[in-house]
Amino acid sequence: MTNKTLDLSVYFIAGPQNFSECSLDGATQKIALIIKSGVTVYQFRDKGTIYKEQKQRLSIAQKLQKVSEEAGVSFIVNDDVELARELNADGIHIGQTDESVSKVREKVGQEMWLGLSVTMADELKTAQSSGADYLGIGPIYPTNSKNDAAKPIGIKDLRLMLLENQLPIVGIGGITQDSLTELSAIGLDGLAVISLLTEAENPKKVAQMIRQKITKNG
């Protein structure tokens, strides 16, 4: 693993499926441009992407990992422990329905960051002693980015949940430019976004805006 510290402030999640109008190469290029726009973490999440063959997936992940390394951006793999190990990624991010944190930790060792998604108060409480390095909490607002997204938490309940949290944590789900100020005031370490960056005309400006809001109030 690299010696970079894990700066969660601008956490970008995407895969080729987020640019479905493009070829795989075209989508990869668009993601690469956003990685270089000022984000601090990139999570390779390619659920819904159709590859002609498995090695094509590995090739795209390797290209995006290289771009991340060159940009000084931490490279995280979503769910796929074997891919994370093959790439020697900076980290792996898992959900509540995946293998337990302890089992994943056995596979990836102590040198790889391990992130865990939480969607409710009980999960957040349990996660504190799970061994995860950081948490992703959400969806905060309604979102169309995930077909299986849980019920939105809302700002009021999120504030209460964060009182029980001691781990680095990023908020995710339905985040827009209009909600950045509201979110920056509640003690999150970063914001994880998909469409806010993939649909942005100027990703660099949006990434800068997120970073300024989070670091100002962090």
UniProtKB/TrEMBL annotation:
GO biological process: thiamine biosynthetic process; thiamine diphosphate biosynthetic process
Alphabetic keyword roster: Magnesium, Metal-binding, Thiamine biosynthesis, Transferase
Database matches in Pfam families: TMP-TENI
Top-level taxonomic group: Bacteria
Residues binding 4-amino-2-methyl-5-(diphosphooxymethyl)pyrimidine: 43-47, 78, 117, 146
Domain named Thiamine phosphate synthase/TenI: residues: 11-195
Pathways per UniProt: Cofactor biosynthesis; thiamine diphosphate biosynthesis; thiamine phosphate from 4-amino-2-methyl-5-diphosphomethylpyrimidine and 4-methyl-5-(2-phosphoethyl)-thiazole: step 1/1
This enzyme's EC code(s): 2.5.1.3
GO MF annotations, alphabetized: magnesium ion binding; thiamine-phosphate diphosphorylase activity
Enzyme class: transferase
InterPro entries: Aldolase_TIM, ThiamineP_synth_sf, ThiamineP_synth_TenI, TMP_synthase
Family indicated by similarity: Belongs to the thiamine-phosphate synthase family.
NCBIfam families xrefs: thiE (TIGR00693)
Alphabetical list of HAMAP family matching this protein: TMP_synthase
Physiological role: Condenses 4-methyl-5-(beta-hydroxyethyl)thiazole monophosphate (THZ-P) and 2-methyl-4-amino-5-hydroxymethyl pyrimidine pyrophosphate (HMP-PP) to form thiamine monophosphate (TMP).
Protein's UniProt name: Thiamine-phosphate synthase
Protein source organism: Lactococcus lactis subsp. cremoris
